[in-house]
Automatic annotation (TrEMBL):
GO terms for molecular function: methyltransferase activity. One of its GO terms (biological process) is methylation. This is Methylase. Keywords: Methyltransferase, Transferase. InterPro entries: DUF938, SAM-dependent_MTases_sf. It comes from Chromatium okenii.
Amino acid sequence: MPYSEKPFSTSSVENREPILAVIQPLFQHAHRVLEIGSGTGQHAVFFAAAMPHLIWQTSEMEDNLPGMRLWLDEAALPNLPPPLLLDVGGHWPHEVFDAVFSANTAHIMSAVDVAIMFCGIGTILTPGGLFALYGPFNEGGRFTSESNQQFDMRLRAQDPRMGLRDIDDLQALGNQHGLRLVANHTMPVNNRTLVWQRDS
């Protein structure tokens, strides 16, 4: 079915400025950033416009590409190239990137796919490069808020493979693939931005 209207994510509008405040200084020396799971493309357009010094490479699964292209085509930013087809369980780009960003993806992936994502990032991120992951997370095996617990229940009712991931588990995954957790930023609405750095 052809796309005639751009998809729209309210949460992307609500969280884009707090996320930018965290990633803009992190990515100030980056040249190429890969966004995993770009969704509608709204974040990509906003961040690419705010950080014109870097190439913001979007990626998504096949079904989401047509809608995202509407946002990218309308923006027509010189540092926003066409999106890549990327399913974390499939083929990864052959290029390397100075940074990787992903928002609200870990909890909609299976635990297996989250592990594969960390493995893939470990292969495409340059030494010293940064990976920023935004979303809701558990800490120490516990929910950090009642709303996050309810959100987790809704996700698992939809698909038992989905659910909030624990920061300790993600840290262990990072360690397996040369990624060291270097920052844990508190964000609005019980979210976090976790930042890993690849070993140099």
